[in-house]
Amino acid sequence: MSSDKLNELVEVKESPVHGKGLFAKVNIKKDCLIGRIEGKEVTRDGPHVLWMEDGEKKFKVSNDLKFINHNKHANVAYYDDYTVMSIRSIKKGEELLHDYGEDWD
């Protein structure tokens, strides 16, 4: 998916959850491909680093998908093929949230 398509769906804004967040610019249906994370594999943890494949790989995200914040009430999911999909309908203006699987709250 191109960054143009990603930019049609979402935008970065200040988040009430944490710092900056990613928000829906339009209503997004369940099971919609939001985008594909871009970046590179790294060896160390840090800001915007996802632990993929049960912690086997660490991937530093460089596109706007890095602004998806954590919440136990997730509406998107990262997959091992580096895609981000909606796991329920998301209303225009709603923040995209992923459950990192840790007790971050």
UniProtKB/TrEMBL annotation:
InterPro entries: SET_dom, SET_dom_sf
Organism whose genome encodes this protein: Bermanella marisrubri
Pfam hit, one: SET
Name of the protein in question: Nuclear protein SET
Signal sequence extent: none
Domain of life (superkingdom): Bacteria
Residue span, SET domain: 8-101
